[in-house]
Amino acid sequence: MLLSIPEIHTDLLWDLSVLFGSLCILYFSFIFFFRNRLSAKSRNISDRRKELTPVISNFLFYGEEASKEEKYEYVGLKVEMREFLKDPINRSILKDILLDLQRDLTGDSRNRLLSMYKDFDLHLDAMAKLNSRRWEVVTKGIVELTQMQVVEAYTAIRKFINHRKNVIRRHAQIATVSLKHEGIGHFLDSNRYPISEWQQIKILEVLREKEDFIPPNFGVWLMSANKDVVLFALRLIRYYNQTDANTSVTELLKHRDEEIKQAAIDCIKEFGITDAIPTLMAAFSRAKRDTRILILDAIGTIGKEEHIPFLREVHEKVSNFNVRSKALAAVNTIAPGTILPFKDLDPLIKPESQTLIAEEANEASGDTKEIPTEVETEKIEVAPEADRDLVAPTDVTAEEDIVVSGEHSELFYEDLEVFDHCFMEELNEILEGRNKDDEEDHPGFLPLDFLPLVTEKPTEMDKKKPKKKARKRLWQLRVNYEEVHPDAEFRKELEDILSRVEVQNPEGDTEVEYLNFNFLPFVVGNEPEGDASELPEAEEQESPEEEITPAPASETPMEKVQVVDMIEAENTCSLVDWEALQNEVAEDLSDNSQEEVRQVENKTVDETPGHSIFEELFSKCDEDSKLILLREIPELGDHRELSFLDALKKEPSTRVRKMASDVKRKLQKRLEAEAGKQEQKQSLIQWEKSPQPGDLLEFDLEELKKQGK
Amino acid sequence: MKKILLADDDELLASLLNYRLDKAGYKVHWSCDGRDVKLELEKEIPDIIVSDIMMPYFSGLELVDYVRNTLQSKVPIIIISSAGNEENVLSAFELGANDFISKPVSPAELLVRVTRELNKA
Q1: Among candidates A49, A104, A109 on the partner chain, residue whose Cβ is nearest the Cβ of B10
Q2: Would you list the domain boundaries of chain A?
Q3: Domains and CATH numbers, chain B
Q4: What is the ipTM of this complex?
Q5: Mean of the per-residue pLDDT values of chain A
Q6: The Response regulatory domain covers which part of the protein (chain B) (predicted)?
Q7: Is B15 on the interface with A (CB under 8 A)?
Q8: Is the peptide bond before B104 cis (omega within 30 degrees of 0)?
Q9: Which residue would you say has higher pLDDT here, B108 or A550?
Q10: Does A58 touch chain B (CB under 8 A)?
């Protein structure tokens, strides 16, 4: 099947072509026509401008001293111009030329230009624009009249000051102020709308450029109901230094509006109105933060020393950091150096210490070279003592006479080195002295009195006491504990280990010697070393911890439980007041029945051997593993394992039970053997502690007998 | 008759100043842009140059530099500048301008300055 071409009438195609061609021609003709028209118009205007420019120049530079011919020429030109200006286009061109020129000219030429504008009645066209219903035309009219300084338009323009259209209003305000001197007064009197900051600046600029302007008393407008008028009046008062409005300005401190208050404060500060200070202080309490800062700043600037207590009070009572800082700054502004820097200062930096170091260095080295006692210092200004007492803030713990030294850090480290050296020397002397001298004279402890006693101040948390109920509950707490050192036994063991020294005699045999460490203090954990009465008096006084530490090992089991409880409580709760707690415990004890005491006693006796480390392992392993562990006990275990092995009698597995009894027997044997050795060592230690001549002799004889055998 | 080269792209102001200076007895040649000024200077060095700083193609500063360094001429140059354009004025002085006058211009003041510079020269 063949596709047939649609039949289009050739005439139709021709018709369409003609139509679109005509439209194109019409379009381009339209563009061409208007373009030419606009060009012709601009050319025409340009030509007319060129024609007018020399005429304007002639008018502008026509002088009184002109010759007769020139005068005739001038009059003739004027007549020509009047005829020329009958054409509205010519009027428009001349107006544009004059408006352009007035921007570039100044002085006499400009004044002539403005008069020419009025002479040719061009201002009437502009005034006619004021009646237009279109806001942009009205605005153009106002601007033109303002630029050409047509004073006659003042009355017509001032009506627009409160125009609802913002643009008209703004230009009318400027025109009113610009055209007449009294314009500013009228504007401030009648303005009902806000005046923007930018508008205020522009009006101020207009006023500044006005020649022979005598500013009115702007204090009159401080009572205006319009907030912006008051603010603008304050600005003008400051600009024209109208100090006669001081009373009104001071009264504005009572204004409810913070902005007005702040502007008034600025004014007071600038004029230095000291009479306003009481009002400033009174307004402080009701002011917001920014206003407070401004008030303090103003007081700092214009205040005197009598106002410092107020500033100090502000610093103490107000919580806001900025306000507090400003108060301090104000104090220092009034009396410089009254308040000194006090935060994060190094208390070790003192001018006296430098002198001391210098002297010490002289003495130590014996050097005759003079060490300067006054190093170059950057001194923070220090106020007189009395002043500082007067105004120093309560929370300030400022170091007095703080001197920041450039060389201080070096001196400080030098000081530490000297201290270390002296300390080591003294320590060596003491130790040597103890080796040489008889030990009987000082059987107690190493005299460490020269060391500083460092204690930590109790914090607020430490001072808190637990509630009574809580304390009672503390007493009722079931405590699992482990005796780290079972009293004197532990000490013996430790001393044995420490004092045992193997020495070779001249024959080549090894001998065991025991050293005396009695002079060393015995301090273990939280518990005291033996009887507290053994401690020297000074130490008892200086260590408050010992007053609250539990009783010695010689106490009854019941007491022991108390002790453990209290240690546990001390470890778990640092808030306990130990004295109070001890009293509490004592009271509770007296209340408890004998039965309870017995129960606790029995329990304590059972628990005293302590906790076996194998017990925990045992609970988590299978039978074979238990047997392996049991095999290790005879070698590794101690008396704590005995009770654990006893407990294994209840074990379901017969193999474990058997093994347990076997292991217990072996362990007991080992412990007994070790106990025998301990006794022997104990006698030696006892002798070391308190050697008697007889004992020494007896001991020597026995040793000789043994050696003889 | 002293010859003044007036270089300003503001036709209206230039014609006004031209009229004033002409009336004062000077022969004024007005150039509306920098290129024209350059061509005019190549032809003939005037007795004094009054030039605006802001001009198309060839600024007032370039003109001063061209006259002082390229042409090696000591002809007096008065610069016209807008108010608040002190930086350019200082540059012009550094390059060798003799005087300056700021807009809005007082034709009478300009005349006085021109006369003074010509008398100095």
Answers
A1: A104
A2: 467-607, 613-683
A3: 3-120 (3.40.50.2300)
A4: 0.88
A5: 74
A6: 3-118
A7: yes
A8: yes
A9: B108
A10: yes
